[in-house]
Amino acid sequence: MLLQQFINFLQLGSIYALAAISFSMVYGIAGLVNFAHGSVFTIAMYLLFYASTLLFKITSATWGVFVLSLMIASLGTSIVAILMERIAYKPLRNAPPISVVVSSVGVGMLLEYLALNLAGSKAKRMPNLIPDITIDIAGTTIPLFKIMIIVIAFIAMIILSLLVRKTQLGVAMRAVSQDKTAAAFMGIDSNRVITYSFIFGAVLATIAAGLYGSAYSIFAYNVGDTINWWSFIAAVLGGIGSIEGAVLGGFILGGINVIAPMVLPVSSYKDIVAFGVLIFVLLIKPTGLLGKNAAEKV
Amino acid sequence: ADEDTIYFGVNYELTGANPIIGESAIKGVDMAVNEINEAGGLVVNGKSYKFAYKALDNGFNTDESALNAQEFADDESIVASIGPNDSDMCMATQAIACGDGLPMISPWSTLVELTSCEYYFRACFTDTFQGAILANYAYNYENARTAAVLYDMSNPYNEGVATRFSEVFKELGGEVVESQTYNGKTGEEDFTSQLTKITGKNPDILLMPNFYEEIVSQATQARDMGYKGKFLGSDTWVDTSLLEWDTEGLLEGSAVVGHYHKDIASDVALKFIDNYHKIYGETGDPNDIVALNYDAVYLLKTAIENGQSFERKAIRDSLANIEVYEGVTGTMTFNNGNGDPTKSAVIMKIVDGKFQYVDSVTP
Amino acid sequence: MNNEAIVSFKNVCMYFGGVKAIDDISFDVDEGQVFGIIGPNGAGKTTIFNVLSGIYKPTSGDIYFHNRRINNLPPNYITGNGITRTFQNIRLFENQTVLDNLKIAHYSHIHYGIMDVIFTSNRFKKEEERIEEESLAILDFMNLTAYAEQKAGALPYGAQRRIEIARALSCKPEVLLLDEPAAGMNPVEIDELNQLILKIRNQFNLTVLVVEHQMRLVMEICNEILVTNFGRKLAIGKPNDIKNNPEVLEAYLGKVKSNE
Amino acid sequence: MSDRENRQNPLLHVSDLVVSYGKIAAIKGISFDVYKGEIVAMLGANGAGKTTTLNALTSVISVKNGEIVFKGKNIKGMPTHKITIMGMIHVPEGRRIFPSLTVGENLRAAAYLYEKKDKALFENRRDYVMNLFPRLRERVTQLGGTLSGGEQQMLAIGRALITGGDIVLMDEPSMGMAPNLVMEIFETIKKIAENGQTIMLVEQNAMMAMEIAHYCYVLETGNVTYDGTPQMMKANKNIVEAYLGS
Amino acid sequence: MITKRKNHLLGDVIPVIIIAAILIVLKEFKLISTSRLLILQYIGLYSIFVLGINMVNGYLGIFSLAHAGFMASGAYAAAISSKYFFKESWMFPLILLFGGLIAMLIGLIMSIPSFKAKGDYLAIITLGFSLIVQSFLQNWRFVGASKGINNVAKFTNIYWVYGCLLFAIIIVRKFINSKYGRSLKAIREDQVASELVSVDVKRAKTIAFAVSAFLIGISGALLVHLLGYTSPSAYGYTNIVDGLVMVYLGGMGSITGSIVGATLWQILIQTLKNLGTWRWVVGGGLLCVIMIFLTNGIFGNKELSDAIHAIRKYFSRSKTNKTISEETTK
Ligand SMILES: Nc1ncnc2c1ncn2[C@@H]1O[C@H](COP(=O)(O)OP(=O)(O)OP(=O)(O)O)[C@@H](O)[C@H]1O
Ligand SMILES: Nc1ncnc2c1ncn2[C@@H]1O[C@H](COP(=O)(O)OP(=O)(O)OP(=O)(O)O)[C@@H](O)[C@H]1O
Ligand SMILES: CC(C)C[C@H](N)C(=O)O
Ligand SMILES: [Mg+2]
Ligand SMILES: [Mg+2]
């Protein structure tokens, strides 16, 4: 039972963590609390749904369908993300960040309700994207998809973390996030770098959607809403701009969600406890768990 | 021409958290209105009038629900209002119903407090009623002696059913071994901890009075956590999508309370189902929301024709005195001294991926 | 001697992790002096100002102002009670007018409360009038009147430096800390600044501490100079002694003497 | 290089440049040339428009009127990063260090254009910079934002040296530098020029600037009022009085 | 010389008085339907709400999401007080005050995290606070848990709403033009520099949060007594986002902007209703377009009174032209 709960925690944590880093890509680099990111997640869900439903009509090779529909959906969400960036955010590059937040709220609504109008208000069930196999670990049967979710999420996280920390592009991304003009003096095209961050964000959101869909198959047009809030919370909790932080934040939220109802006598107090813990942590570490102290010297 | 048209308002949840409610609701209303008009409209004082409605989206938002209600109340051509469906939305309009004397019929709000206002009526039974039925069913039909509940604590409906179920189940001699909640408003999708606790107590039956979109996930997780017993569901389960989604048959054997069933359907109901398929061409049968909204319109019609008046007060009085209305969702009688109809509920069981009729319960 | 000192450092240390920004520094500043602090880049000069104005709490040691220990006081309290500074990287309220920049700095010397605000009491009106007049007077003194209604951020560098000084004066300090006031000025402008600093000191009865790399300023107006290097005190003395101190020449001024 | 009049094809040619903030013109139609291998100094009082000029060259602010020809190509309105790629490097006023990147990462960001292709070049240049400013080597892992003012200035210059390019625009590189380092910086500038890079230098330290410059322009409230060789400048009483002091 | 700048209090208040007068006429002569009147009351009370948010998010420049929590506290406190203590309609001012004060008390507590945490970290702390309030109300049986409170006396009317709005505007104006207001704007730009010119940052933040919460609490109190009902679900994410949209749409740090933001958003919600499910496709698009073309919100940080000031200046200039040209030649 404990092992099972642990796996559940890992599963939920991985999904939150992945969603959080996908959010964090744009958030950390373009410095934008992107309320429309949830809509990208929603769109990813629909694209995955339609792509896989269609593909399953042709073939029954689950893995193939999984990978292929992820690719199709990633392409779709990337295009959406690029358009979104060009149309709604680029004109606001020099605006106060908060204006961009409001603009993103607008874009988010637009995309979400577009999805509602195109796909209908009926909820959908994501086909099983990961083969329905169970494995035995120490006497407990664990569905394969749970393991896969955890594995895929970890791979994505490690790749991304290396990318941002070690590569030239990663350094450029962080430079752009701090001073676009100064970055331009180094020959860095900030628009391009920001576009990359939107694309990475979209692809990661798509993977997160694929995993989410495998775990919780029924979804409607507003799935992305709460995911977005959780991602925002996780990203901040871990320390803004830190990929590892977002991962940690995601796992903590997952942990609270799994542990709180377990230890509390009355599960309806769960949210109070969860947000209480959140506030407490941020009061003790006001720059997030892994966030660097904002480098400001007088 | 316009003088011959009688309007009512529809205050419905087209956008916001659960757009499927609004979409289904308007289908039911639309069907009923068209049918009535085809059949010659409303006949009052020997004259026949066309029946029509003005629909306003409330965005699943209390401010907007109230505003819609106020707009209907102001509009003198509007005789009554149908909806909202959600209890929270309804409660925001309650003060207007009474304050301005506009009769309102909620098709689907099962919250007990709703009809404490004398202008509010409903086309459905209440949470107390269905909670009791569920408890009885669990105890007597399934011989359950221990039960557990898992419900969305952010919604008064879910809480209402769960609470009543627990009360009655205890009265009958059973024991509610675990009562677990989650918060639907924060988009919770993982219930494994709650379900682990429930499974640990090994209840005979598990009640999940939640919206059907959440059920598959909850059932899957319950099974994953090793829950072997049966599930029990409330009227928010009754939508054929639920059965389509349940590809693994996890819900087999679960029982739910609903508002009507094809197998015991009256002619009215059969015609309704038939028409629905003709108009909307959908494979699944109309869900309870469609049926209740349809009935709500007919209730209004009945009241108007009974009272032979379009006056709001008169409509209210005549609604309160409807003796028999044969609806899709059963026969209703308003004899409780308030806006609650006396009507029966249907117990159904999910067998072979279908809702199978088990029994009807009359109060 | 000690009792006359308005500001004194006693064995102050300030460490950032492994970096010893200030390492055991002691000195006294007498009232009415212009006290210079010089030293190579990263020698801890700005950090001395930072601990003195309360932004950082020193790792160890004590700081006295009028013989009162001020190590643990919050910055706004220290500023309100007589030690005010300017910044090496100008930090004006860029989007506000020059006049408002000065009015903000009056904060601790405005005597009315919330209730006066709500009821627009006479006291409120009088105080508001007073600070407006005082601000304008300071601007006039600093030759900045022309800029009063302009946004501070759009003004030339030199003007911004003077506005910073004007703003600091609005806090009614006894001790004024200037961090590289002459940076970005040409020799002619520096000469003007020298006069200005002396004028301010005399007019407002101040003690001035100034960090600067421009010898044209330091040697001209300072009564005493502290030289730091790697966070430690290298020398302290009169300008002439410092100018000819071989250690200072080696570590700071460079082999060739500055053009004088 | 005093035979400037006879030289053809300046590396950078600016004519009738007008820049304004809102309605107020900060630069009122200035022209100047910079030839390859030269150190050109631009002098002027506070607020004369020196920074504005440099910012206009690299499109940090938009140009209202005039022409900017760099390597024979009109770069007016070209995005900043493309101008950098063409070889014009800007060391801005106020240093503009990336505060949350470490010193090492700041330097690495400066090699964005070629690091992938030529890692060795980056390492060479980085070593050169670190030898020039040993303090930067000591502090590779310190966050840029916590450096002292002068240390930041070292880093800003170091970044430009790493980026390379044909012409470096320096906005008051000696600002906030200790006297001993000021001399070192001017020597470095001289050395860079000798190695073939061109320098456009904005300086308040007119004395030092003139020592190393080949040609000077004097800017007064948005207009070029004098230009000539340093010798000519030093001979001009007005200029000496206004910028060099007694 | 400097034109001495008077506080054109009337500049902001007069329009509201005029509007209110028009409303009274409309209402008393029944020239307007009750539902239009209801929209106007929403506009009025959300203007108060937004003015409150603006104190912290606009003037102080903190990205706070605490407003849902403040509104809930004000609404519930007021509802309880009118249900159990202040049952008569003449006690309505007491009810409003009670709602405002309870919210203010909570606001005082909420200012503490802002001493230490900054930016989005503070945003999440305040978000957590709002959600804790909501969750607490969902659990509290005494106030109906998720069912909320119904049968609350409908004391609110257009006079109360616009009376309170007028009060709110005056309070905010006075506040902003005092040393406290100036210090908020200074902190918004540079907290460290503010401290180093003697501004008591903690005090300024505490006061800002308190005033903000007080106004938001009053708007909540007005809302419950307008609808006669409230439930916890009204104070969740939607409320939080709506508040943000209204503040920044109008312009942060502008009183006029707050009112314009609230008005525009309420009108947008109503007019788009006819579009069915397309309403938020259009609404979202519009929001985005407005922000692109008016990057600082509709009013930016300008006030209506600035326009009056400018006009006055223009006219006075033509009169005193001579003296000014004298000054400039000097
Ligand atoms: N917050 C901090 N974290 C880490 N190191 C710091 C911090 N503040 C200062 N330092 C280091 O402490 C040393 C002293 O810095 P300080 O700013 O006092 O130098 P300075 O003497 O003012 O130099 P300059 O003349 O260049 O302005 C520097 O090496 C600097 O890098
Ligand atoms: N953002 C701005 N908005 C409005 N005016 C500006 C702005 N930046 C600069 N100016 C004005 O343009 C003129 C030129 O300024 P610039 O910064 O180019 O001068 P500078 O020669 O570099 O002076 P310094 O030696 O002080 O750096 C000044 O009068 C200044 O007030
Ligand atoms: C779930 C809701 C839309 C309907 C439910 N019967 C209620 O009373 O609220
Ligand atoms: Mg310094
Ligand atoms: Mg400059």
Features:
heteropentamer, A: 298 residues, mainly alpha, ABC transporter involved in vitamin B12 uptake, BtuC, two-stranded antiparallel sheet, two-stranded antiparallel ribbon, 4 strands, 74% helix, E: mainly alpha, 15 helices, 0% strand, binds adenosine-5'-triphosphate, binds magnesium ion, BCA_ABC_TP_C (chain C), ATP-binding (chain C)
Low-confidence stretches of chain E: 321-330
Q: How is the biggest beta sheet of chain D arranged?
A: 6 strands, mixed
Q: Which structural class do the helices and strands of chain D define?
A: alpha/beta
How would you state the average pLDDT of chain E, rounded?
88
Number of strands of chain E: 0
Give the overall average pLDDT of chain D. Answer: 91
Any idea what the radius of gyration of chain D is? 18 Å
Assembly state (oligomeric): heteropentamer
Shape of chain D: globular
General shape of chain E:
globular
Output the number of helix runs of chain D.
Answer: 10
List the helices and strands and how they pair.
The complex is a heteropentamer of chains A (298), B (363), C (260), D (246) and E (330).
Chain A: H1 2-30, H2 37-58, H3 62-89, H4 97-119, E1 124-125, E2 134-137, E3 140-143, H5 144-166, H6 168-178, H7 180-185, H8 190-215, E4 218-219, H9 223-238, H10 243-263, H11 270-284
Antiparallel strand pairs in A: 1-4, 2-3
Chain D: E1 12-21, E2 24-34, E3 39-44, H1 50-57, E4 65-70, E5 73-74, H2 80-86, E6 88-91, H3 103-110, H4 119-132, H5 134-138, H6 149-163, E7 167-171, H7 179-194, E8 198-202, H8 206-212, E9 215-220, E10 223-228, H9 230-235, H10 237-244
Parallel strand pairs in D: 3-8, 3-9, 6-7, 7-8
Antiparallel strand pairs in D: 1-2, 1-4, 4-5, 9-10
Helix pairs in contact in D: 3-6, 4-6
Chain E: H1 9-28, H2 34-59, H3 67-84, H4 92-110, H5 113-116, H6 119-139, H7 158-176, H8 179-189, H9 191-195, H10 201-227, H11 237-250, H12 255-271, H13 279-293, H14 304-319, H15 321-329
